[in-house]
């Protein structure tokens, strides 16, 4: 067996060691599938706790993980600054991560930043409009450092596998009105693994998709697409200290808390439901079965920092 085959296993072993030694708790890395239902194993949630208590626990966990992993990242990197949306009126900054309810959050911010008339309901505009109306980003702000120091900052995370599965089902299994993923990315995956574009990117398998986005190294622009780029690369949680970190798994409660915390709940009328839900969590077991052990290990290796930083279990 070539040394490269061992790389994903070594990375995951190291990740488990960090979890076990630094956080002084038994690692879930090598849990048997028989120990728990695959769907229930997706996330680490504490529903009995209130949103603020959950967030504080996760923020502490992130700080410890960042220190243990000695992450070298900069909050000034362009990918992070371009994903930090700010609202001067309410002095808030949101780091948007695609496939973590970011369309709903964009609806909220379109209202709070004054991009929508006060009388217009945030659910009345189309998904296309939501993503085409520009929102202010720190990348183009004159004083990003000052905002980062003084504004309320929040982000939401999701289980890495569930997030990537949601992206695949949304972008590769059905037409997309905003961007031709089949033509721009599906064809490249097809050509990469089959040497042809006969299907024009319309029948990429989940196995091919996972192999493509999990390849070692920095990858191509298509492999680094924001819809599946690891969450820590988008939001730099080791250099940006977020005041609130919510989970997709507790979205309803956590989002409502954030709206009240920012003082905008009455303005927006509550957190909007997803306009095109994919419900990836209901399909985890089905798609996981389509992957070989090597493909699973490759995925875990690529997304290992997200698992460790945000306290998610391997499936």
What's the total count of β strands?
A: 4
Number of helices: 15
Global mean pLDDT = 85
The residue fraction in helices comes out at: 40-55%
Largest sheet geometry: 4 strands, mixed
The amount of beta strand, in percent, is 5-15%
Strand order of the largest sheet: 1-2-3-4
The structure class reads: mainly alpha
The helix-strand sequence is HHHEEHHHEHHHHEHHHHH
Instruction: Write down the Rg.
Output: 20 Å
Catalogue the unreliable spans: 20-44
Shape: globular
Q: Report, as a whole number of angstroms, the end-to-end distance.
A: 25 Å
Descriptive overview:
- The protein is mostly helical.
- It is built from 15 helices and 4 strands.
- A 4-stranded mixed β-sheet has the order 1-2-3-4, with helices on both faces.
- Helix 1 packs across helix 14 and helix 9 runs parallel beside helix 14.
- About 8% of the residues have low confidence.
For the structure shown, list the relevant keywords.
four-stranded mixed sheet
């Amino acid at each position: 067996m070539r040394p490269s085959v061992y790389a994903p296993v070594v990375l995951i072993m190291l990740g488990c060691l960090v979890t076990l030694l630094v956080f002084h708790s038994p690692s879930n890395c090598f849990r048997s599938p028989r120990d728990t239902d695959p769907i229930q194993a997706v996330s680490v949630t504490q529903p009995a706790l209130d949103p603020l208590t959950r967030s504080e626990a996760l923020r502490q966990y992130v700080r410890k993980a960042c220190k243990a992993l000695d992450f070298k990242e900069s909050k000034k990197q362009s990918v992070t600054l371009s994903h930090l949306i700010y609202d001067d009126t309410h002095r808030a900054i949101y780091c948007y991560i695609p496939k973590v309810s970011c369309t709903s959050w964009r609806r909220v911010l379109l209202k709070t930043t004054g991009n929508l008339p006060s009388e217009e309901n945030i659910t009345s505009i189309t998904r296309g409009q939501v993503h085409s109306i520009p929102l202010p980003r720190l990348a183009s702000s004159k004083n990003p450092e000052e905002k980062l120091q003084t504004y309320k900052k929040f982000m939401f995370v999701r289980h890495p596998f569930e997030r990537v599965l949601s992206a695949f089902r949304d972008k590769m299994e059905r037409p997309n009105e905003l961007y031709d993923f089949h033509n721009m990315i599906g064809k490249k995956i097809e050509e990469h693994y089959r040497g042809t574009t006969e299907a024009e990117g319309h029948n990429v398998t989940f196995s091919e998709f996972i192999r493509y986005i999990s390849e070692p190294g920095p990858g191509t622009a298509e492999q680094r697409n924001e819809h599946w780029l690891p969450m820590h690369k988008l939001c730099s949680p080791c250099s940006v200290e977020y005041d609130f970190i919510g989970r997709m798994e507790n979205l309803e409660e956590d989002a409502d808390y954030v709206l009240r915390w920012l003082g905008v709940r009455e303005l927006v009328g509550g957190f909007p439901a997803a306009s095109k839900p994919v419900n990836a969590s209901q399909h985890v077991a089905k798609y996981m079965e389509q992957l070989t052990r090597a493909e699973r290990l490759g995925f875990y290796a690529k997304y290992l920092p997200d698992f460790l930083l945000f306290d998610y279990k391997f499936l």
